[in-house]
Amino acid sequence: MIEKLKELTKDTALYGISTIVGRFLGFILVPFYTNVFSPTEFGIQSYIYAFLAFANIVYIYGMDAAFMKYATVNENDKKKVFSTGYLFVTITALFFSFILVLTHSWLAEQADLVNYSHILLYVIGILFLDSATLIPFSELRLERKAVKFATIRIINIIINVSLNFILILGFDYGIEAIFISNFVASLFSFLALLPTIYINIEWSIDKPYLKKMLFFGLTYLPASLASMIVQVIDVPLIRELTDEATLGIYRANYKLGIFMMLFVSMFHYAWQPFFLTNAKEENAKKIFSKVLSLFLIFTSLIWIVLSLFINDFASFEFLPGRSLIGQQYLIGIYIVPIVLLAYIFHGLYINFIAGIYLEEKTKYLPLITGIGALLNIVSNIILVPIIGILGGAISTLLSYIAMAIGIFYVSQKYYKIDYEYGIIIKVLSILIGISTIYYYFHFTNSLNYLVKFSLLILYLVAMFSLKIIRIKDLQTTLNIVLKKK
Fold it and tell me: Residue 284: its pLDDT value, please?
């Protein structure tokens, strides 16, 4: 088992390099944006990116997941699967883009973005280029070419970040600079992946594989759309229920959850190919169980540190009057612990999805994610008018909890894993308990350093006294990291 955990740890670390470095470079833009753009402008760009996120799902319609599924079934047919998926996605992406270019002015009018209709042209270009790189990136993951994957991703972000600074500070561009930079960075990724495309392409579409991939992908599409609703539906809803300035404050603070998202994202990149390639191992289920326990322990540690001290971090002034997050945005910092907790449950969902994939029960995904999406919409409509942006964060948390429970139930029905339930219950109880105490002191205006350090100590005492963390486990983890046997 240790060797398999080493394998997952190595891949997680390699993908983590690109994810951490890339997202960190991207995160640099958050303090930059919040110090140069008003909350209203930040809210508008957040709203446009929400549209882009939805459209991305439609452009790829689950074909990247279908490629990874069928490329691992028969190694000899991998190029055939790659060519079929890639060519069909590229053709349909061209068609979607053509339709959007013709209707972009009308779309801008319908979305109350008439003054920003030209930005939608950059968005359409980004959509096409990103759809043309998803399957090649998936190929790199399957081949475990994590270094190449990481290099392309990091350079992409460097280009994006650099152009933002150049266009905004050097040429006085507005928020259109954000989308121009993204377009150029996406173009670089496409060009960098051309060798991968060339090596794997056969310039023909295999009809039997296309039929299988479309069935798998389109079955996956409703779930993907529902999952995206969970992630970004709060953006248009908060804009509609409040205003663009409030949305800007909400999204700026929501992005502080990046530190938890980083860990969950890098784990996700490594987890899917890991469980697909190790499912036939004799002790696969035992390995998967241990992975979940370790994931929950690590993320709980990240949660406690960030939740207690994110306000101090975000309000740090690197220049007079210039804090990490613009001063006018800091009033929304209290939503961060909820956002971090939501990402933990998203990570649990990612863990549990292994059984669905392995037993080809993806037909349940639309129902599970659909319930999460519906819960998100309803709770936003109910909570945001009452408690403001905290309602948006709680809605996302409730959605991920519902999805994690749903995917766990179905996965266990077809691919039962004996998880370490004692650890799971204890860790989640600690997080919920400390969250309750945290918000009590926050809303009574008595959340000081004494309370924060007391909660940190309480967490550590609970983790050791309840035997969630043991010295032996720490030694094993250290050995994995250091690659010792």
Answer: 84
